[in-house]
């Protein structure tokens, strides 16, 4: 009887050990293995997506060089910091040529286009947009000619807003409030 008890105890111990082994290795580790397999499948899918959209280094480098060349070509139509004063003088000269009276002329020195600079900061080159507020007087023809010549300047100057009013004392005289945008090209690598 004592031998039977030892035999059943050993059998019970073997069965409990086997069940414990099945629970820890097969059940618990099997669940972990399934989870790892799912992660591996997801990683494989991501790798395949990246392989589809991945470009060679040479393609990326060539595209960057083309964009840099195109950006550098803006120097011919956008004044640099050193020629901004010439643009302002050109506006005054056009006003004198067209017999326009300038009552107020306020070029702002702050960039009103900061988002572009932060996006292009890595190149060391960027464009700033500087507003110029004007109040001028003239007749329909002179103000029209003035605006046409402003738009035909060699350097980029855009008309942002315009407000025309006739003067009470003289129906032929107009007052015109303008906001112009002058664009300035900066190269942070170049010393001013």
Which terms would index this structure?
single chain; 192 residues; alpha+beta; Alpha-Beta Plaits; 5 helices; four-stranded antiparallel β-sheet; rod-shaped
Describe the structure.
The structure is a single chain. This protein has 192 residues and is of the alpha+beta class. It has a domain at 79-187: Ribosomal protein S6/Translation elongation factor EF1B (Alpha-Beta Plaits, 2-Layer Sandwich), CATH 3.30.70. Helices cover 53% and strands 23% of the residues. It has helices at 2-53, 57-72, 84-97, 114-120, 140-151; strands at 101-107, 125-138, 157-166, 174-187. It has a four-stranded antiparallel beta sheet, sandwiched between helices. A hairpin with a 7-residue loop joins β3 and β4 (174-187). The longest helix has 52 residues, at 2-53. The model has no long low-confidence stretch (mean pLDDT 77).
List the helices and strands and how they pair.
Layout: H1 2-53, H2 57-72, H3 84-97, E1 101-107, H4 114-120, E2 125-138, H5 140-151, E3 157-166, E4 174-187
Antiparallel strand pairs: 1-2, 2-4, 3-4
Short summary:
With about 190 residues, the chain is α+β, with helices and mostly antiparallel strands.
Structural class comes to: alpha+beta
CATH architecture of the domain at 79-187: 2-Layer Sandwich
User: Hey, roughly how much beta strand do the residues contain?
Assistant: 15-25%
Helix content: 40-55%
Average pLDDT for all residues: 77
CATH class of the domain at 79-187: Alpha Beta
In CATH, the homologous superfamily of the domain at 79-187 goes by the name Ribosomal protein S6/Translation elongation factor EF1B
CATH topology of the domain at 79-187: Alpha-Beta Plaits
Radius of gyration: 38 Å
Please tally the β strands and state the result.
4
Shape descriptor reads rod-shaped
**Order of strands across the widest beta sheet?**
1-2-4-3
- Report the biggest beta sheet as strand number plus sense, adding barrel if it closes: 4 strands, antiparallel
Tally of contiguous helical segments: 5
- List the secondary-structure elements in sequence, H or E: HHHEHEHEE
**Termini Cα gap:** 106 Å
